[in-house]
Amino acid sequence: xxxxxxxxxxxxxxxxxxxxxxxxxxxxxxxxxxxxTEPVFFGDQPRPEGVVISFEQWAEYxxxxxxxxxxRRTEQIARDRIASSRSEDSVSFEDMMHEYGLxxxxxxxxx
Length: 111
Fold this sequence. Notes:
Blueprint: E1 2-6, E2 12-16, H1 18-23, H2 25-33, E3 40-42, E4 50-52, H3 55-84, H4 93-99
Parallel strand pairs: 2-3
Antiparallel strand pairs: 1-2, 3-4
């Protein structure tokens, strides 16, 4: 059994019944070994309940997930530091530029 399913993005995917996908795993693996990259969506309802992807795709998604998590943690650390900082601890942009010997007006020269 095969059904079409419309994603919220407007894209349409094919959903194959679980039994058929289970029986076809060897063929799916052959396709991935041959360079195919299309995910295989499956489920016993007329909507996707699972997806089969190549290991390379999974590794790429895992790396992106880890990078996004690192960025989220970094942003949270910055928010926490800003929230706990005192105004007397801060330095104005102009003062910081002068500290580094730079022109805060951006005239290309040193201060």
